[in-house]
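(Deposited chain)
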Amino acid sequence: MHLLEVNNVTKRFGGITALKNVSLYIDSGEKIAIIGPNGSGKTTLFNVINGVYIPEDGRIIYMGRDITKLSAHERAKLGIARAFQITRPFPGLSVRENVMIGALFGTLSEKINTREALKIADEMLKLVGLYNKRDELAIKLTGPERKLLELARALAMKPKILLLDEIVAGMPPAKVDEIVDLVKNVAERENIAVGVMVEHVIRAVIRFAERVYVLDRGEIVLSGKVEDVMRNPKLREIYLGTRFKGGV
């Protein structure tokens, strides 16, 4: 049994089909990447997995349970966490308090109090390198620091699956490598399955993922081991157009 299964999911917005019969799986502790050009359906897929959208057709199975119609906060308590590309910290709260909220609404939500949630927040802030800014207002963080805050808040939920939405977008190569290695180390230590959405940072895919799914126009058109997908000529065609030939 897979940890998560997306079975023949279709999501429409009016007359537009954003996802069409999408199927994929992820196992415990596994690291996968979802890639594809702008408008391919990656964000919609993540929104369906973590409960922002309910699909018109298909099912989401998590640990053998059909969670297709559960809300995002219900899925969070079950262990599905997400770090968003567009960071939205609570501006009036400190960095530490922002991360604490993740702990209070995650898998331990019914088992811990505020004091224990703050301890988890401190642990996660040390992991991502923001502990020295724990008492600052979150709104004062830089763009890259806010992404680290988003990651820390998601990790504080103690998830079984962590969905990372363009976590390295716009960062220099050295920072990309640093964050990818951080996520890999934490995922392996905590046995967290990670699904990372990547748009153009192929460097992160190669460094991070074990398997890759390629979305194009709402459908999965390629999937497999990273090295096999990266060598497939179809990948270059998807990103650059059919007049370009050869591997990536």
Notes: The mean pLDDT is 90.
